[in-house]
Design a protein that fits this description.
- This protein is of the alpha/beta class.
- The chain has a single domain, classed as TIM Barrel, CATH 3.20.20.
- It has twelve helices and nine strands.
- The protein has helices spanning 21-37, 47-52, 56-62, 82-99, 119-125, 159-162, 165-175, 193-198, 203-212, 214-217, 222-237, 245-251, and strands spanning 2-9, 42-45, 66-69, 107-108, 130-131, 142-145, 150-153, 180-186, 241-242.
- The strands form two sheets. Strands 1, 2, 3, 8 and 9 form a five-stranded parallel β-sheet that branches. Strands 4-5-7-6 form a four-stranded mixed β-sheet.
- It binds zinc ion.
- Residues 8, 10, 70, 74, 111 line the site of zinc ion (ZN).
- Zinc ion (ZN) binds at residues 8, 10, 70, 74, 111.
Length: 257
Amino acid sequence: MKIALTFDVERDIPNFLDTDFGIKIGLIKILKLLEKHQIKATFFCTGNVVKQQRWVVPLIETKEHEIACHSLNHERLNKLSFEECKQNISNNKKLIENECRNSKIIGFRAPYLKPPSFLYRLLNDLGFKYDSSISSHKKSDSYYLKDYNIQEFHPINNYFLFRLPIGFSFIKKWVFKKELSILYFHSWEAIDIKRLILNQNNKLNLFKEYFFRIDRWVNTGDLFIARISKFINEAISKKAEFVTLKQLVIDNNIKSY
Ligand SMILES: [Zn+2]
């Protein structure tokens, strides 16, 4: 049983809060947790975070985790043309590579898990080796697209369920039966989003987020960190192997799970 923990490193709830506590506080908590368990993970970083917080890439790299791309400013890439999209992802990759000492960037995830239809062609053009943007799947958790030389890893779009007690039990049962699972989280889940929402000046936004987007704030912060820690302990007791997506590509380039 292999498990890949993946974290999108972006500003806090893009297009809503747009603060950076998830980077300055949340990311640090996540890195500490992974270090405690001696586990490596994959971090999909946006270009704006890498540019604004120049310590982010070197720190993730020093801890020997994988760094991958997540667009420039968390745009809806499926609304952009091929050339606009290519420029966007190419700039994201360059910004990360400029901050890296020796990591080769081979992975990509589209914001909101909404990739454009031409994504694989574009990723191939830019030298990527895998994508992890498509959450809906029927059979395989991963497959190789020969025409584009790209491996697809389906993330389980479960981040809200994972933070709920019933959802957590359900996900564990499911994951512990599978050969490969790619879990999908965000750096901002490691901070108390509820408190940030309640501090909003815009009362209409506050109302909408509090009552209609419970998925964004419930059990975030230390509860989220405790839950991941519990998950890791249980997975290790079941002999799970934690991997980065890059490592899977290197080990099994044309394997389907
Ligand atoms: Zn994202």
